[in-house]
């Protein structure tokens, strides 16, 4: 996989999974699609795009649904110039990722869910550390063995509902993703190779309905994914998560 990274090392492509409606948030008073909910002065979509650009992405692509696109147009919501928005009513988060694959060239790409709120310094640290791991640069802490195909951000589980647990080996490799409880959970940010899309047809044949199932399949298929632990990550699913993220932003 290193050859893919070398081909793409001069240009980092960002991709945001943002086609969901955010039903749990809407039931708690946020009457907007999740990508357009505001955190401070920014929408979650704008914030995630800006974080990717700040971490080195020259171009960012986001897939949103038609409702989100209509509201963006009606409200004239401003977004970073580097962000390209594609409108697609996908059935689930996995299908959104696979749709992003239609626009991604061969190589590595940075992707994140729109509701993964990561402090800018942590986001930048994830990207630089992940690139260093994939480039096999010396001096990367907590990774005893290199040769990873991709890297996932992980965070200590704090009792969040419906997490994707990540079992991490001593060498920093993720050996399992799923519902079996583990100390770490995925943080919603990933640096992945475009080679993952070769499994798209199989995932659809098996009728996977979520991104988590697809990520777990990558490990089952022999892809070696490394873990980078992050701090202060908030996964915004409910009103309490949003309130916590807003309070953290004020601090």
Provide a short characterization of the protein structure.
This protein has nine helices and 13 strands. It has 251 residues and is α/β, with parallel strands linked by helices.
The shape, in one word, is globular
Assign the CATH class: Alpha Beta
The CATH architecture assignment turns out to be: Alpha-Beta Complex
DSSP summary, beta strand count:
13
The CA-CA distance between the termini, in Å, is 40 Å
Q: Main β-sheet, in a few words?
A: 5 strands, mixed, barrel
Give the CATH topology.
Answer: Spore Coat Polysaccharide Biosynthesis Protein SpsA, Chain A
Structural features, described:
With 251 residues, the chain is α/β, with parallel strands linked by helices. The chain has a single domain, classed as Spore Coat Polysaccharide Biosynthesis Protein SpsA, Chain A, CATH 3.90.550. The chain has 9 helices and 13 strands. It has helices spanning 2-8, 23-26, 44-54, 66-75, 93-100, 120-134, 200-205, 211-220, 239-250; strands at 12-17, 38-39, 42-43, 57-64, 83-87, 108-113, 116-117, 150-156, 165-168, 173-178, 184-193, 225-229, 234-235. The strands form 3 sheets. It has a 5-stranded mixed barrel. Strands 2-3 form a two-stranded antiparallel sheet. A hairpin with a 2-residue loop joins strand 2 and strand 3 (42-43). Helix 5 crosses helix 8. The chain is globular. The chain starts with a helix and ends with a helix.
Please give the structural blueprint:
Layout: H1 2-8, E1 12-17, H2 23-26, E2 38-39, E3 42-43, H3 44-54, E4 57-64, H4 66-75, E5 83-87, H5 93-100, E6 108-113, E7 116-117, H6 120-134, E8 150-156, E9 165-168, E10 173-178, E11 184-193, H7 200-205, H8 211-220, E12 225-229, E13 234-235, H9 239-250
Parallel strand pairs: 1-4, 1-6, 4-5, 8-12
Antiparallel strand pairs: 2-3, 6-11, 7-13, 8-11, 9-10, 9-11, 10-12
Helix pairs in contact: 5-8
């Amino acid at each position: 996989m290193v050859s893919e990274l070398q081909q793409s090392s001069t240009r980092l492509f960002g991709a945001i999974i943002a086609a969901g409606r955010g039903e749990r948030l809407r039931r708690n008073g946020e009457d907007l699609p999740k990508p357009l909910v505001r955190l401070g002065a920014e929408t979650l979509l704008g914030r995630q795009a800006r974080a990717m650009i700040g971490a080195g992405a020259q171009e960012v692509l986001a897939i949103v649904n038609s409702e989100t696109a209509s509201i963006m147009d009606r409200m004239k919501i401003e977004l970073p110039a580097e962000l390209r928005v594609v409108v697609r009513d996908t059935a689930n988060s996995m299908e959104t990722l696979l749709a992003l694959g239609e626009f991604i060239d061969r190589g590595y790409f940075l992707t994140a869910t729109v509701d993964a709120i990561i402090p800018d310094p942590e986001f930048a640290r994830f990207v630089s550390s992940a690139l260093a791991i994939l480039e096999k640069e010396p001096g990367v802490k907590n990774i005893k063995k290199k040769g990873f195909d991709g890297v996932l951000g992980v965070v200590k589980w704090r009792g969040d509902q419906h997490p994707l647990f990540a079992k991490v080996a001593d060498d920093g490799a993720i050996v399992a993703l799923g519902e079996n409880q583990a100390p770490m959970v995925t943080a919603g940010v990933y640096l992945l190779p475009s080679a993952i899309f070769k499994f798209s047809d199989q995932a659809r044949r098996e009728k996977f309905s979520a991104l988590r199932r697809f990520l777990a399949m990558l490990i089952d298929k022999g892809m070696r994914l490394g873990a980078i632990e992050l701090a202060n990550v908030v996964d915004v699913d409910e009103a309490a998560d949003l309130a916590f993220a807003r309070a953290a932003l004020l601090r």
